[in-house]
Amino acid sequence: MYIIKILDEIYSIYNIEKYENLKKHIEKSEFYSILKIRDNISIICKKQSSSNNENWRVLKIEDRNEDELIQVVANITTELANEDIDFNIVSAVSKDYILIKEKNFNKAIEILEKIYKIK
Questions:
Q1: Are strands 40-46 and 11-15 parallel, antiparallel or unpaired?
Q2: Are strands 56-62 and 33-37 parallel, antiparallel or unpaired?
Q3: pTM, two decimal places
Q4: Tell me: the pLDDT tens digits for 96-119?
Q5: Which of 3, 37, 42, 104 has most Cβ atoms within 10 angstroms of its Cβ?
């Protein structure tokens, strides 16, 4: 059984052009991700206290088995989509993360607890 860990911090998605001084927040984040699409660079990191950006919570998929991972991610995204819960998936070589808008977080946890162990 896969274990999904809830990261404690609140995260936000920032446009790097507006927030040039994010290094201190990246260094303090358990998780961060940088994404560049064309001319837009976005960063997901621990929320800055002065930010009005939307709040996101992060789940980390643990006990990763490469052979089953695609099915696990497919199951999670299907369950969340069926309940109209906004989410993003960030995959890396060693871990996978699910970002869920804070306003839907408790509902998402209730759904996922039926399938996975949440800690």
A1: antiparallel
A2: unpaired
A3: 0.81
A4: 899 999 999 999 999 999 988 888
A5: 104
Output the DSSP codes for the chain: --EEEEPSS-EEEEETTT----HHHHHH-S--EEEEETTEEEEEEEPPTT--SPPEEEEEEES--HHHHHHHHHHHHHHHHHTT--EEEEE-SS-EEEEEEGGGHHHHHHHHHTTSEE-
Buried b (16+ CB within 10 A) or exposed e, 3-25: ebbebeeebbbbeeeeeeebeeb
Tens of pLDDT along 56-76? Answer: 999 998 866 666 777 888 889
Task: For residue 71, give both structure tokens.
Answer: 């099915």
